[in-house]
Design goal:
Helix content: 40-55%
Distance between the termini: 134 Å
Largest sheet: 4 strands, antiparallel
Order of helices and strands: EEEEEEEEHHHEHH
Structural class: alpha+beta
Strand content: 15-25%
Radius of gyration: 58 Å
Shape: rod-shaped
Low-confidence stretches: 294-301
Mean pLDDT: 77
Length: about 300
């Protein structure tokens, strides 16, 4: 609470329009004197609020009731990317309950401190070059946070506005250069990842192709083996059928020729005759005519 003076004799004060004055009675109670001519009686004294400064108390004891604007400049802050900066901000508020504001609230320093503390906390979530593009949203969030705290103490906080972010030009240039290098690095990483993905797809396709070729080779080998098996079986069946036919022929001869030895000799002569009949069917075979008493055929390939 600000300092005050004791008045033994009554004194009249002229409270300006849209202002008010707080008077402390002899019993220690506070009463509000609105605009116009107001008297301080015996034992009463006006509260001089010099500690409030020119922002809220332009006449030391007269408190302005209209919207008030308090400009603040803070330095030594750091952004999310650890860049030093200087912040210029404006706090817009209105005193709605003067008695509460005077008795329980160290205006305007406490209001300023609470607003700037909340603003500093919020700015820690932003890089330095992101602050100005998002200054409206940042100010609105800070005002919402502080408004709930100060409303019950007679102050209605309207807005917290970021006016400017001041930074050393060389530091900013270094920051932008570092950001550009980081961006180029990310682009290079993305390109490398894309190239690696393409290579993986190529390898996958090559493996699929090799797998398909292997399957085709297996199928062809199985088909060839099956063909050979079928051919072998056919040859075996043909031989079996041929042997059966020869036995049937021999049996028929035995029925016609009663002498077994004569029948076997005749059967051998028939086989030779059939074999001679087949000679020459194969272009790789040659027939040589020899004297009949040699009874020999030569096969040449």
């Amino acid at each position: 609470m600000g300092s005050h003076r004791d008045y033994i004799m009554p004194r009249m004060f002229v409270v300006p329009y849209n202002h008010a004055m707080v008077i402390e009675t002899s019993s220690g109670k506070l009463k509000l004197a609105k605009a116009g001519r107001r008297w301080c009686l015996f034992g009463e004294r006006p509260m001089f609020l010099g500690s409030w400064g020119n922002e809220a108390n332009k006449e030391r004891c007269y408190i302005e009731l209209a919207l008030q604007r308090m400009c603040v400049e803070e330095s030594g802050w750091q952004s999310k990317d650890h860049m030093p900066m200087q912040i210029k901000a404006r706090i817009v508020y209105k005193i709605t309950d003067i008695i509460k504001a005077v008795s329980s609230y160290g205006m305007p320093k406490q209001l300023r401190d609470e607003c700037m503390s909340a603003l500093q906390t919020e700015l820690n979530n932003y890089n330095v070059d992101e602050i100005l593009p998002n200054k409206v949203a940042i100010g609105a969030k800070v005002a919402d946070l502080v408004r709930k705290q100060v409303l019950e103490r007679g102050v209605n906080l309207k807005t917290v506005e970021i006016l400017n972010v001041v930074q050393d030009g060389k530091v900013l240039a270094a920051l932008l250069e570092a950001r550009l290098a980081e961006s180029n690095k990310l682009v290079a990483i993305k390109k490398a990842e894309a190239a690696a993905e393409i290579e993986r797809e190529k390898q996958k396709l090559a493996l699929e192709k090799a797998k398909n070729a292997k399957e085709i080779a297996c199928i062809e080998a199985e088909a060839k083996a099956e063909t050979l098996r079928i051919a072998a079986k056919a040859r075996a069946d043909a031989n079996q059928i041929n042997d059966s036919a020869e036995w049937r022929s021999l049996a028929a001869l035995l029925e016609q020729v009663k002498d077994q030895n004569q029948a076997v000799a005749l059967f051998e002569q028939i086989k030779k005759f059939n074999a001679v009949g087949k000679i020459g069917l194969n272009p790789n075979e040659k027939v040589y005519v020899l004297p009949h008493d040699m009874n020999v055929s030569v096969k040449a390939s």
